[in-house]
Amino acid sequence: MLALRSFFYLLLKFPISLWVKCRIVSDDLTKPVEDSDKNPVFYIVRYRSASDLLALQKACKKLNFPDPLSNVTINGQTHARTICIDTPSSLLLSKKSSSAMAQSLAILDAHEQDNKLSAQLIPASLVWGRKPKVEKRNIGVREVLAEQESPNWLKKLFIVLFLGRNTLIRFSEPLSIRYMTDKFGTDQENAHKLLRVARFHFHRQKIAATGPRLMHRQQMFKTLLKNPSIVRLMEDEAVTKGLSKEAVEKQALVIMDEIAGDYREGMIRIGERILHWLWNRLYSGINVNNANTLRELADDGHEIIYVPCHRSHMDYLLLTYIIYQQGLVTPRIAAGINLNFWPAGPIFRKAGAFFIRRSFKGNRMYSAIFREYLGLLFERGYSVKYYSEGGRSRTGKLLAPKTGMLAMTIQSLLRGINRPLTLVPVYLGYEHVMEVGTYYKELSGSKKQNESIFGVLKAIKNLRNYGKGFVNFGTPININSFLNQHVENWKDDIDPIDPQKPSWLTPSVNELANQVMTAINKCAALNGVSLIAMILHATENKALPRSELEYLLDFFISLQKAAPYSDELTIPSISGRELLEDVISLKKVIVDKDSCGDIISLGESAALEMRYYRNNVLHAYILPALVCRILDRTSKINIESLSNQIQQFILLLKHDLFLWQDSNEVDVQIAQVLQFLCQENIAKQTKAGFWSLVENTETQNYVQVLGEVADETLQRFAIITSLATRLTPIGKNELSEKAVSIAKRLSVVNNINAPEFIDKKAQLALVNSMREQQIFSVDNDGKLVPNSTLETLKENVNNLVDISVLQSIAR
Whole-structure pTM over 0.85, yes or no? Predict the structure, then answer.
């Protein structure tokens, strides 16, 4: 029998290897997979199937894992390396019983007899095709033939033929059988438990890869029309506007048709192939970090809501592609209505996009339908992606969050959804953003161009090497846990029929939105373009000798390794010289040669564009920059005074730059920065505890460059503190407007070509932070009145800003 089975496998091996194409996803394996006598490797799969085992063998060979079709010998006993939980259905005869129980008991018994034995069990999930199951209506012949639940050999043939080119194999982290036997024993009950948990594990992984049952678009419309909130609203509209029920229902259907997506798994597969070609043409690599978090959430049954920053229209494509590559079903995507143009709109809709207007104001029916549509997506278990900034950042800094989608998400939770809703912050970074040239035209007053097919064709025509892309998944934020911490008895407001807007919703949403943006910045990615942009913008003429720039790159990278902004920040692993070579190849800088060597500089237009990339990572360097600026402008300072100044600045910049540190973490990073400067022989501490710079012209220059990173931020503080002390009391808007006027003058006088420096919203954000920190109080007329701490802040700021700037502000 074994010989016959071996011959059968040998017969199928060639066609399987030729036809089946596997995508392999491996969870974070903390240790390399090593197979030895005392640490043998076993696999566990869902079904005993020749095609499954041969596909698994192909994947294991690619990963250099042990052959799943081989045997393992333990103390003279031979065991099959792969445990198959269930046997396939028989075409004519009754289904054969599985040997999984006997295999499991034999392996457990071997561990009981040999205390030194510690086998690893690797769950391997095989999903043939990524097509989700559909609701019972409109099921085609292909779906029936390719049904995967315990298929017989004939059905499996069709599965391989139809879906073999799109097979997913996911290896989970190894399970220690020694741990299981020591904790639970080796009896039959433990073996039963092992197989039961494995079945559930594979079921969850299949849902994570294919998604829940697919609801047809027209079914969604019918479900929404029966929704109690929408029914009540349509009745009210009919009465107040004197319309018939049919007319109001027609209006509702038009809105639903405008909003709703039309997800087709086939479009995702076609899109993946096109995007795979596109990324290889555009980027030299896409770096992905912490993706294993997503799979863990999906396995645990969480409703995943992706909340990325928004840099480019490329975000829609890149993040969806990466999620699919990680073995997960792609989310339904909230896209701006401006993208609903032909042919992009229909394509995006079939890829899972649903469209949202920029404003719901004055349209009760649209607002209600959109809210209930979003709630239906959550109720059905579809993952969702939306951009809390509302639009693309034109400056490179994160925008203040728009809270409408988050509010509707929490309102959906108040319907009594029994799965946890979890936000996944995502940092998207690029070494080149294809729209960055138009961003500064818009910031300088040019009219925003509407998206069209002609813009797409123009972008395709200009495709070139864009360097690297970065997709970093941050720490998930469970909304249920967030509400448990921030809102007492929030579950009392759950109403499955018609959830209301409780009084706690707005403040909670605002707090949650800030946490999301902070979490995005926390998992930022440093890259060569952003670092070079930061360094050159910190020099007077935006130019440096090549050797000096290379050293500063190493200096900036080493600083983050020694005193990291966060443990989620990703830092380049290559040297400053290699980073510079990459950026030169992207034509981001000008290289001039003279008798002394190369000079690296930024041209006028490049200087504007490079500010965008500088702003992507400004938040990661603001604290070290303040430390260096204070040391550079102070002959000596004790740690308490240094900490007090920086604590105040960080608190005031917290919302503007979405910084995550509290006072304890600020002190920790200050200590780390000082220790790094001390190790580099740049700063020293006296026996009395005072810190100062070492008298070395070369190292002081590096400190000045890093300190200059905070210069424009400090200038904004100088403008506001100067105005506030001279024009008291003053209205908040008046103060920000006057601050913008002075900033515009400074930008001309001091050659600060930065639209974000003269942005009223940025000035207003600092004013609001100063009010929150009680540097201002509010009089009976609603005007700002300085408190005693303003003078201290002003004195600290004036000590750190160039005298020429202060004189310009005073005039």
Answer: yes
